[in-house]
Amino acid sequence: MSKTLPAAAGDLATTHPAIWSAYADLGAATAAAGDLTKRERRLVKLALAIGAGSEGAVHSHARRGLAEGVSERDLHQVALLAIGPLGLPRAVAAGTWISDMTEK
């Protein structure tokens, strides 16, 4: 399980598998609670991570979006859309965090 997760999440999954399992189940339940597509859910989660100012979560959702076929351009557009509600500095920071994943 932890071999496919980033270090901190992998450590938590290894150390507390019941907590990680409950967290994964919650994610599955929230995904099934509505009609958004997998792509739409990924972009919304990326936007929420940007709004929260969480570099790690932006990295995670950008990386997972790329793996799911979301284009780099679309990921970066989410950062651009943050300019209005969150301000230019937050949007620029988010763009650099997304670039961390797209330029690998």
Automatic annotation (TrEMBL):
It comes from Maritimibacter fusiformis. It comes from the Bacteria. One of its GO terms (molecular function) is peroxiredoxin activity. InterPro entries: AhpD-like (IPR029032), CMD-like (IPR003779). Residues 21-94 form the Carboxymuconolactone decarboxylase-like domain. This is Carboxymuconolactone decarboxylase family protein. Transmembrane segments: none annotated.
